[in-house]
Predict the 3D structure of the following.
Amino acid sequence: MKSKKLKPLLILLLLLPLSITILGTGCEKDEITSSKSRFIGKWVEQESFTDGICDTIIFKEDNTIELYIPIQEWTYSFPSSNTIEFVNPSSLLSRKCHFIFNRKNELTIFNFYDRTITLEIKDITFERIN
């Protein structure tokens, strides 16, 4: 009698982790997609670093970057919901950075390149201008 009652319970317990895994991965992909759509457009640096010039970066729909000299024509992707990866297609050099949206039109990318000759690394806050 006991073995008949335990079999259905055992099957349900074995299926539970599989169900959670399948449902969990679906939610994560939605967050990454929404992050990409929030990035697309033209962003201007809020504070210049050393030369008094605020730089502009454009995240394009085809996952490429325009205007931002250190990584112009690089590609970008989202390995997680708070990480962006920049890849140089010609040399396969890549760099991962964390980011947050401070407000709807304000974005901070941490440990990101500045457009100086020395390619300084810093936290840069951008404001969306379109």
